[in-house]
Each structure stands twice: as C-alpha cells, then as structure tokens.
Amino acid sequence: SQTIHQWPATLVQPVGSPLSLECTVEGTSNPNLYWYRQAAGRGLQLLFYSVGIGQISSEVPQNLSASRPQDRQFILSSKKLLLSDSGFYLCVTTRGSSYNEQFFGPGTRLTVL
Amino acid sequence: AQSVSQHNHHVILSEAASLELGCNYSYGGTVNLFWYVQYPGQHLQLLLKYFSGDPLVKGIKGFEAEFIKSKFSFNLRKPSVQWSDTAEYFCAVMFSGGYNKLIFGAGTRLAVHP
Fold this sequence. Notes:
The complex is a heterodimer of chains A (about 110) and B (about 110). Helices cover about 0% and strands about 60% of the residues of chain A. By secondary structure, chain A is mainly β. The model of chain A has no long low-confidence stretch (mean pLDDT about 90). In chain B, about 0% of the residues lie in helices and about 50% in strands. Chain B contains no helices and twelve strands. In chain B, the strands form three sheets. In chain B, strands 2, 5, 6, 10, 11 and 12 form a six-stranded mixed beta sheet that branches. Chain B has a four-stranded antiparallel beta sheet with strand order 3-9-8-7, with no helix packed on it. In chain B, strands 1-4 form a two-stranded antiparallel sheet. The chains are: A mainly beta (about 110), B mainly beta (about 110).
C-alpha cells in the first residue's frame, strides 16, 4: 500500500524567509502528485500537480513553486514567504486501478509571522 | 471553469435530526464524486465516493449520497445525526481529462448538539 511522508509536520517562519516542504511517496511508482493548501476557514485549494519527473503544472498564480526531482519526491518552495502563505499543506497521490482515488499525506502546518 | 459549490457553510442540528448537505458542480462531462470529513484536530477521511453505477452510494458511519446527473448534484445525507458527527464536510469532484485533480468545495461545518 502507498505511504506518503511529509516534513516537517509543523513550521513557524517569519515573513520574507524561504520555504521548503518535502513530500515522498512509498509503495508506488510513477504516481501523480499534488500539493493542496487548506487555509483557515477555507476548503482545500489545489496548488500544483505533477504527472512525472520535472513536470509541474500550477493551478493558481502565487508566491510558491514546486519541483519534482525524483519519481517519488515532490517539493514545495518559496523564496520569500508572505503572511497569506500560512495554512495546512497536503501532499496527495492517486491510487486505485484507474488513478481515480486520491490518498492524502499527514500534512504540514505552516505559520508565517 | 470547473467549480464545486457547497451551499451551507454552517449547519447546526440537534441529535437525531436528519442531515442533508448540498453539493453542486459546474461541468457537463464525466465526473468522479467524493465526500470527505474532517473531525476536529484530525486529517481528512473519505466518507464515500461515486465512480459509476447506482447513483445512491452508501459510505461509512451511516452516511449516503445521491448523484443526480441532471442537476449536477451530489448531496450528502444521514437520517439521524449524532454528536460525534460534529465535523467539517467537504464535497470534491474529479473531472475527466483533468489529470485526476480533485476540486473541493469550501466545506460545511456541522455542529450537532446533544
């Protein structure tokens, strides 16, 4: 079965500092990978998705970027954090014979002060 | 653009009351439909899903949902809620041809009073 690891679990960063959140997946190969953000009082917003190494699609213009240096590694970054970047970040992969069911990682709670 | 709407942002019920949470999406093609629940302090859990077949699907904890294609709706129901159902509920839609991306509704916060 698939397992998603995310770190760190929680992070408090000052405005203007850089960010790097890492996600790794076990138990599968060539997964579709996604980054979602859940801001306080809001639903989940899809930020990026990747269907393969080096392939990144951005869903919304923002202060963040994503990279996929290896098949089962997905990284979310920022050069300078904003207050509005605070939220709960989820790494997600697909499972099921038709890749039509998503599996959620444990998440990283980011607070920007 | 593809979107998902949950019309009730906050719902307050007494125990044993019936529940129906609305979910509509804007797309005329093939969709996969999901309801997720997030209990206080916990992560998202899948309640139920619809891919094809019987439009009335049953999930965990007594929840069910009905897919009405003509109305682009996938409403969540439970005949009798319990205090332990207090949580936030998210409808999500996977649109065909979209690399299996899930588009979430804004969520409905349910509070059940004893």
